[in-house]
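User: Second chain of the day. Same drill as before.
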Amino acid sequence: MPFKLNISDKGKAWKIEIEDEVLVGKVLGEIVQGKEISEDLEGYELEITGASDLAGFPHKKDIEGPGLKKLMFNEKGWGMHAKKPGLRLRKTVRGNQISEKTIQINFKVMKEGEKNLKEIFPEQNKEPEKPVDAVETPAETKEAPKEEVKEEVKVEEKAQPEPTPEPEVPEPAEPEPEKPEPTPEPAEPEPAAEKQEDN
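Assistant: Same format as last time:
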């Protein structure tokens, strides 16, 4: 089964997998020559700082051998994150010796070799590159927010329901002033001359 190795140096971790069982029998805290792991790591000195097995049980530095052991933890520290005072937990851990059941091993660089780790593992820990298209001129950056604001306003206007028109109530018509009825004019008396002709 391959070992997954994590090599820590200056706040960065470099990962490598090896099939060789050269690390079986090594103990936590032991310094390993880099050329035993890979030819690219020639000149490096690596210290084994921790490990874990297939089931995820961690290796503890002060337990001898490669086997599993149950320990009682009653103080805050390695493997214990007590939230209440007086809490005791029994946990399973593995001994300090690397075995065939170990899957992950952690290393710390004690001495650097000829090649830098960036050259050995060029595909790891790359810095993200900014795309060229993302860079905009200051004029474009000023115009863009204005357009966005206009679009947002339009969306908000559409989202609001239109107010329903209130029914129009006809205003009461003012009564028209009554016109006085025309008084009949008195008939004019016929001229006296006409009366005489009739006689």
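Residues 3-114 form one domain.

User: Great, on to the next one.
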